[in-house]
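Predict the 3D structure for this chain.
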Amino acid sequence: MSKVKTKWVCQNCGYETPKYLGKCPECNSWSSFVEEVAVIQTSSVRKDAVLKGVMNDTKPCLINEIVIDNTIRFSTGIEEFDRVLGGGLVEGSIVLLAGDPGIGKSTILLQTGKYICKNDRKALYVSAEESASQVKLRAKRLGVESDTLYIYSQTNFEAIKNQIDEIKPQVLIIDSIQAIYSDTVTSSPGSVSQIRECTNILMDIAKNKNITVVVIGHVTKEGNIAGPKVLEHMVDTVIYFEGDRYKSYRLLRCMKNRFGTTNEVGVFNMCDDGLHEISNPSELFLNERTSSNTPGSVIIATNEGTRPLLLEIQSLVGTTSYPAPRRVSNGIDYNRLLQILAVLEKRIGLNLSKQDVYVNVIGGIDVDEPAADLGVALAVATCARDVCVSPDTVIVGEIGLSGEVRAINNLEKRIKEAEKLGFKKMIVPASNKIDVQSFKNIKVIQVARLMDAITACVGK
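Done. Predicted structure below.
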């Protein structure tokens, strides 16, 4: 027999308390507690569960005796998706895909289901937010047709589990986990208890039946995955789908991967007929760049994962009539910009105390790595002095507080990317020990100080 009592659960982090609290002591969020019914199993019920566990016939095995089949990982049919996953989906794994509304989560999984079913695999697409006819409308627009792709519009997890046992799919897609509920939990769909319980059952299905599960998750207004943090710990892979609402491109970024690296990023272009892969994203971000010289415009070579990416940074420096000049940065960390401006003033003698400084990364990409420091510094310096950097020049390097240009990683890949796109000159740190003579179609200039880089970029 079960005893019924209530508890208060924080919907942000999952913290539980027997009484209501205005502020969560775990995550410091306000007004996040919701009352839920807690079902406490009696000792007799727990004893039965323990006896069932004792009768389980599974046994431990030596790691040297475990044989890995080559077919344990299979392709999604989308190269950029496979790149982020580390080579494809792994059998028996759980993948969590999160992103803003309308970013394309359902679209990419519907396209993935189409390619997966081409290889004699069965996929079950559970739509908890749309009817089967609405999913069919999207599938028709995307050109998705398959005889082994099942669409099931359902929110009850027990009914979904019955269909899994009947269809026996190799791939299960849940859209979305926040809309699914289980009869064993009395709270409403989307609550911490429901998400935790449904994910636990999905994890059991994936591991015991060797079914690959892909789950779509909602995000909060802060950009975090909705639900308890334990959700991200339970799954094998966490992927964020990012993008600018004013741009058509999308970024697929891996935040956790038990079967591969988290350094890879996939780039897509959202079109009327679905998501298209972009094999060369540098051309995408540079296609609107004019060939004429413009003060304050430079090209940098950054890394998105292990892939080099060329981006344009623009700067605008103007006199202000206010006592405190403005510092505005888009795509560059604000504190990093202040540090670069301080180095320019102290080491170069560039007086910006009465100048407004605006820095923008074209395309809406956020550049986090320090290798963009030299490009930002040269964009500000050339705009302040109204001189131009040659449009066929690429700049890369980290700036120290003493004005030195520090070494960066993956420099050879960045140089080869710039050479492939037709750039003629590249300014790199001298502390990177590379053979500059090995690059035939691009002139590589090594600089040790910030002043040397300014002299090299404005020279012929």
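The first strand starts at residue 2 and ends at 10.
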